[in-house]
Design a protein that fits this description.
Length: about 375
Amino acid sequence: MKIRRIDTACYRFPPHRKIVDAIQEVECLEVIAATVRTDTGDEGFGFTYTIGRGGRATKVMLDTEVVPLILGEDPRDTQRLWEKMWWGLHWVGRHGVTLLAASAVDIALWDLKARQAGQPLFRFLGAARDRTPVYNTDCGWLNHGVEEMVREAAACVERGIPGVKIKVGKESRLEDVARVRAVRKAVGEDVKLMVDANLRWNAAEAMARCRLLEDLDLFWMEEPLGADDVLGHEQLSRRTSIPIALGENLFNRHVFREYLARGAAGILQPDVGRVGITEWLRIAALAHSFNASVSPHLMMEVHVHLVCATPNALFVEQVPMLERFLQHPLRIEDGYAVPPERPGHGVAFDEEKVSAYCLETSSWQ
Ligand SMILES: [Mg+2]
């Protein structure tokens, strides 16, 4: 079986609502997609995304560097092809655009393999469960007022969602604490409550902030420091009782290993749009060997399969960023995300709904 054709596309979708966190506003959701086709008529679909910048550069990387490495190859050889992409491109980037482009193709290859096997991706990978709890992030953006946040968080709990996450990183420490306290009061003691600082602080500031939040039984503190500050996270982890979660800004297993080896984080949040499925599974297995958990970042429609195939995974993160554009939105029932039983990952854009947002398409054979 050989890959005979790869179609690529770049879309720019407006955000589903105003989204602000401690360091940025989501300008739009850029999706960079790859459809891989074989000489046997098999097909796989993969995609990655940005939050407003770099989409076109990612498509150029995909078209000019990744596609030539993959065309003509056997799509079933996902381990070999990941290594080929990694070593073929590591000179120009072991993070960022290079990995985004490789991830889109890697997701397409796994989709193709599962479709060819006639199985949903989570079963093809070896299911650990057939549904997974979700937590909701959409109720807690930093631009939300306290009332809005409390109302939406309470509505999540009423729908049976077992966890909610709210953004922190306001200038005032006390304002942050008051916001988190208001949500804790609204959702009750049994609901898992997480906070996310989006890389905002240094270690000293994070320690002061954590101390003020420690009586609120937080399930995790996410990205308190810059993604490269392993030492700072290690110091923070030793001094706070709040578990530290991170990983959406890490692009390969080597940096995840560093965090695990130093005890600098206990919950890893790899994003399949940035590490691909092949490397995501390696990171999850690595975490398992350290008795650590994974709880992936966004991309809920693909991650539902990976979480369902990973015994040490916790949640799928619920943010309906793509929902409007899909043929089959992810099913969420009683607080659980249910992966589709269609072969592959089952994610497909509704062409009628996305065509107006398409910036550019290319076809390679
Ligand atoms: Mg985050």
